[in-house]
Amino acid sequence: MSDLTEIIITASLLVGGFLLILAIYIFGVCKNESHNNFIMFNTLLMIYDWIFYIILNIWIFTANLDDRDQDYLYYIPLCTILPTTSSMIFFNSILTFTILRREINNNEQFRAWFQEHKVFCMFIAFCSLGNLNVLHVLNCKFNYTDMFDAKLSFTVEKKIIHAGVISLFVGDIPRLISLVFVNFSYIPGFSAIPMICFFLTILVITFGFFYRLYESMIRGYEKPTVQELIVNKKQFSEA
Q1: Cα–Cα distance between 117 and 59 in angstroms, integer?
Q2: Burial code of 53-83, b = ≥16 C-beta within 10 A, e = fewer?
Q3: Among candidates 194, 217, 200, 236, which has minimal Cα distance to 42?
Q4: Which segments cross the bilayer (predicted)?
Q5: CA–CA dist 77, 211 (Å, integer)
Q6: pTM to 2 decimal places
Q7: What pLDDT sits at residue 193?
Q8: Domain with 45 in it
Q9: Percent of the chain scored above 70 by pLDDT?
């Protein structure tokens, strides 16, 4: 395809996806302004970014770039995309498993919610491999839906926030650097898939910054929930 066609595809998918996410956010605001609608907006953006990053990893090892030296062609992904993806998935998977396992074992309300929404929780866990902040959507209470009303404990809420900051340096920033290299050094000309990933990653990091401000200034984590107090008391008694 020509560069113009690639640019049109890139713009269409970026603008179309962003408008769809924005429409869902506006729908949530219209339903209830007091709920954590920005979490849903940020989560959908991160999931959209994760989907395209998976597509990029498949594409970059299967694309036929005839005008590049074949040794160079296979060497670059092994030194950029593959290590970045592997380290990000490894780190996020360990934290996701630890966080969810803790809640299932220690939080009765979350365990009851998990039994009813296993498929949804597993999907969110898979998406959290790209960005740990996706886990916040579990209790954003979007549109009064029980699916988005998991009773995460105070401790886990804080752990997700702290782990998300670490994930920024382990996953997001290295991924952005590798995408800069892939787009402007590895790929000849303009290509839609890596460029979409590049812009989506920039958007995720940018909105992630505002999301962290939102976490620190708006969301109320100052006091543990009643369930968390019960869990802490139970753990103290057992000790």
Answers
A1: 33
A2: beebbeebeebeeeeeeeeebeebbeebbee
A3: 200
A4: 7-27, 39-60, 72-99, 119-139, 160-186, 192-214
A5: 31
A6: 0.79
A7: 86
A8: 3-238
A9: 78
Token pair in block for residue 68: 């590049």
Question: What does the block give as tokens for 1?
Answer: 């395809």
pLDDT tens, position by position, 165-188? 888 888 888 888 888 888 777 766
The H or E element spanning position 102 is helix 81-106
Contact assessment for residue 133 and residue 43, using Cβ atoms and an 8 Å cutoff? yes
Question: If you ran DSSP here, which 8-state letter would residue 109 be given?
Answer: H
Q: What sections of 107-172 are H helices per DSSP?
A: 108-116, 118-127, 154-167
Q: Burial level of 183, CB count in 10 A (0-12/13-18/19+)?
A: middle
| Residue 62: pLDDT over 70 | yes
Indicate the number of domains in the chain. Answer: 1
Give the chain's radius of gyration (CA, Å): 20
Tokens of 105: 């074992």
Question: Max Cα separation, the chain?
Answer: 68
Return the closest-CA partner of residue 186 out of 57, 77, 30, 52: 77
Distance in angstroms (rounded) separating the CA atoms of residues 1 and 190: 10
